[in-house]
Amino acid sequence: MTEQAVAAVPRRESSVLRFAKGLALIRESWVGMVGLVLVLFWVFVAIFAPLLAPFPPNATGAPLTLPGGPSLDGSAVHWLGTDQLGRDILSRIIFGSRQVLLYAPLATLCAYLVGIPMGLAAGYRRGLTDDVLSFVANVILSFPVLVLYIIIIATIGASGTNIVIAVTFASAPGIMRIVRGLVLDLRNREYVFAAETRGESPWRIMLVEILPNARGPLIVDACLRLGYVVITIGTLGFLGLGLPPPDPDWGGMVSENRQVAMFLPYIAIFPCIAISSLVLGFNLLADGLREVSLRD
Fold first, then answer.
1. Which end of the chain, N or C, is surrounded by fewer C-beta atoms within 10 Å?
2. Cα separation of 135 and 291, whole Å?
3. pTM of the model
């Protein structure tokens, strides 16, 4: 036990040093810092939504109030105006960030939990396992992604859980192919041969020896994929296949008010800005992480 504890100390120290080095490098990338600030801004908004929102998200007042207009009792201001039902747009955007930042990371995480084991098995075991998993992935990827989402949501119903299921089903094959390509490159490294010589099990080799060394490209892909999932949630909400009302949904806000958006464009513009800024944050963060990986 003592020898194991002593042997584990350098590994922990090296992990801490690598993490500290990564933080120092991301600070040197202004692109990554801008992306991180945008993401952290929306995380802050989502956490403190009840304190930041001037009104409850489903409270009704005077409909189609212009930005900066007072509430019915004059006690507060609708900074971004109200929609057709008199609901405060700013408050709904603030509370809508909670939905996006809950389901987008959850769906992305579930997709990785499915795609990573598939990619590890296909890339390391090769042979029949690789053929079967690659065939299944290619069949799913042959469908247009949006059509696949619509088919799944229309079949099982619109809800947050079903959005997670749909994103996992459609995204896991793409993740599987990325992991498979990384494993094909890493499986011939010396540390893998050493682990095989020690008689370690295949799954231990895949999870302990190979996967940690593939983390760089996967982290960058995860940031990009988070942005894609945010767009997906907004698109499904616009099509009426997102979160069921009256829960605030950025895409649903655009859809609910599209009839008057031509005359009062601010009703659709503000939710679109929210979606775009969060997606931009994830994309810039991914670019910054890619710069960090190239410098490291």
1. N
2. 34
3. 0.88
81 backbone dihedrals φ, ψ, rounded to 5°: 85, -175
Contact 181/263 with Cβ under 8 angstroms?
no
Q: Could you report the per-residue pLDDT of 61-84, keeping only the tens digit for each?
A: 889 999 998 888 877 899 999 999
Domain range list for the chain: 79-295
Task: Tell me what the mean pLDDT of segment 263-278 comes to.
Answer: 94
Q: Tell me: cis bond preceding 271? Omega within 30 of 0 counts.
A: no
Say how far apart CA 285 and CA 249 lie, in whole Å: 24
Phi, psi for 77 (deg, rounded to 5): -125, 135
Q: Give the span between the Cα atoms of 176 and 182, in whole angstroms.
A: 10
